[in-house]
Design goal:
Elements (H helix, E strand, L loop, with lengths): L3 H4 L1 H6 L2 H5 L2 E6 L11 E6 L17 E7 L8 H10 L1 E12 L20 E3 L13 E3 H11 L2 E9 L22 E8 L7
Parallel strand pairs: 1-2, 1-3, 3-4, 5-6
Antiparallel strand pairs: 4-8, 7-8
Length: 199
């Protein structure tokens, strides 16, 4: 495993994300053995032993101050359903903090993935769904993912490419998250509405 959470720790510290987003009670979805560690709260790991991350069925609504997930969403069979439940377990005003592989940096725009056969979706800030032949398992962050999050009453706070250590001179056959300490991911941060008008 590439331990993307650990690799991104210095970047999170530089951006003051621990104090801004990881405060209180948190859930780390798809944590494996690389659990988010924050000095400002407690983090509960959630992986296959706890159940299906598409549903989070053992968790009640409005339980957590923040939900964090690193390189898990691309493994979900139903992205809209998974996000619905990831948002469901957030308290009003809670933070959803997700990282997913960037299709260009990580996959080198190959599909299916040549690095991880379990990837069920791709994500990009630059390549649209139209440009990949309207493939429904491809999500342009602003055109496809943001509207989905907004429909779940989430306000988009931030999104960015995180490519620390990435070497564009290496061949496409090299998984830079595995053989090199590179980040090849997109960060998405959103906040749940304090109240839903008309609910």
């Amino acid at each position: 495993m590439s331990k993307e959470t650990s690799k991104a720790k210095t970047l999170r510290e530089q951006n003051n994300h621990f104090l801004k987003y990881f405060v209180g009670e948190g859930l780390d979805i798809g944590s494996g053995d690389d659990i988010l560690d924050t000095p400002y709260g407690n983090v509960t790991p959630y992986d296959t032993a706890e159940g299906n991350a598409n549903y989070l069925s053992i968790i009640e609504d409005g339980t957590y101050d923040f939900v964090y997930s690193s390189h898990c969403l691309e493994h979900m069979k139903d992205i809209p359903l998974a996000l619905k439940h990831w948002v469901r377990v957030l308290k009003p005003g809670g933070v959803l903090y997700i990282t997913v592989p960037d299709w260009t940096l990580y996959e080198h725009e190959h599909w299916p993935s040549i690095f991880n056969a379990d990837h069920k979706a791709t994500f990009s800030l630059s390549v649209t769904r139209e440009e990949v032949g309207k493939r429904k398992d491809h999500y342009h962050i602003r055109e496809d993912l943001f509207p989905l999050l907004r429909s779940l009453h989430m306000q988009i706070d931030d999104t960015a490419i995180e490519d620390d250590g990435f070497d564009p001179t290496l061949p496409d056959t090299v998984d830079q998250t595995d053989k090199y300490p590179a980040l090849c991911q997109i960060r998405i941060i959103a906040t749940k509405a304090l109240e839903v008008i008309g609910s």
